Amino acid sequence: MKFLRTLFDGFTLALFATVALAALLPCEGRVAVAFDYLTVAGIALLFFLHGARLPREAILAGLTNWKLHLLVLASTFALFPLLGLALKPLAAILATPTLYLGVLYLCCLPSTVQSSIAFTAIARGNVSAAVCAASLSNLAGVFVTPLLVAALLATRGADTSPLRAIGDIVLQLLVPFVAGHLLRPWIGRTIERWRRVLSYTDRGTVLLVVYVAFSASVAEGLWHQVPPSALLGTLAVVVVLLAVVMVSTTLLSRRLGFARADEIAIVFCGSKKSLASGVPMAKILFAGNPALGMLVLPVMLFHQIQLMACAVLAQRYARRSLDERGDAPRD
């Protein structure tokens, strides 16, 4: 039962419920406009809190491991896009063209922050390096993700201007993030004290953006355009994508001689994609696109699959570390 709760947590169930709500009661007209303004404010608050929570000491402690950070960035912004392109024949058979665009968009996103750090800690990896690598990936994503989206999706139906997209993302995501981080000396303790309560801001913002995105897509006939077989096919594509990246980062880490703790950080930071950044970025990059809900669907599927895979892998790493020290707990 505990294992099932790890795989299907409350947030995952809330995501499914939000999609169902958008299908049954989509927001339209003036309500949709009001919700759109609310999502902009929520996204700004979300990244402000991310900046306020980020400890500068952990970043400085992890910056010296530059080879690790380069490998994580290469996996996130080079390996993933190349695999996304390589999977086109499989996606053409299993998914729809728009869902494949969503897979390509997924490949352009930065890594997660909170879950990468959490799984690295569970697996007894290099936590300070994970904090730095995941944070650096998100900051780089502000500039790299729009460029990758323009390169991979411009000829495939996306209407994006890279420079304009970067400007919008800097204004809506990076500026609040930097403001929160600069104010950390004054508000950091309060943020940490109310961390559990404020975590609902993160999740609530993502759910709100998902609801608005799927409402617009439902109005355009989303579920008539996406048969169940295409959803299952997209799920298969993202499973293959995650499996290849996880195996590749593990083998590369060992081939390059990284210590076990660094390998753990590389695998968890280099194989994950951020739903918390991906959904707000999609709202900016694909503003006004009625297929927005379909474009973020692969990101949502990948989010759940990566949590399930990382939960299993983190426990396996932890058991191996305990076994090597000879103090594994008895069943």
How would you portray this structure in words?
This protein has 331 residues and is an all-alpha fold. It has one domain (6-320): Na+/H+ antiporter like fold (Up-down Bundle), CATH 1.20.1530. 82% of the residues lie in helices and 0% in strands. The protein contains 17 helices and no strands. Helix 7 packs across helix 17, helix 8 packs antiparallel against helix 15 and helix 14 (228-255) packs antiparallel against helix 15. The model has no long low-confidence stretch (mean pLDDT 83).
Uncertain residue segments: none
Please report the first level of CATH classification, the CATH class: Mainly Alpha
- Mean pLDDT score: 83
Main beta sheet strand tally, sense and closure: none
**What spatial form do the alpha-carbon principal axes imply?**
globular
* DSSP, total strands: 0
Proportion of residues in β-strands: under 5%
Summing up helix and strand content along with how strands pair, one would put the structural category as mainly alpha
Helix amount: over 70%
CATH architecture: Up-down Bundle
- End-to-end gap: 17 Å
The Cα radius of gyration reads 19 Å
What is the tally of helical segments? 17
Number of domains: 1
CATH fold call: Na+/H+ antiporter like fold
**SSE arrangement, N to C:** HHHHHHHHHHHHHHHHH
Please give the structural blueprint.
Blueprint: H1 2-7, H2 10-24, H3 29-53, H4 56-62, H5 66-86, H6 88-94, H7 97-108, H8 114-122, H9 127-153, H10 162-182, H11 184-193, H12 195-219, H13 222-225, H14 228-255, H15 260-270, H16 275-285, H17 292-325
Supply the key terms.
331 residues, mainly alpha, Na+/H+ antiporter like fold, 0% strand, globular
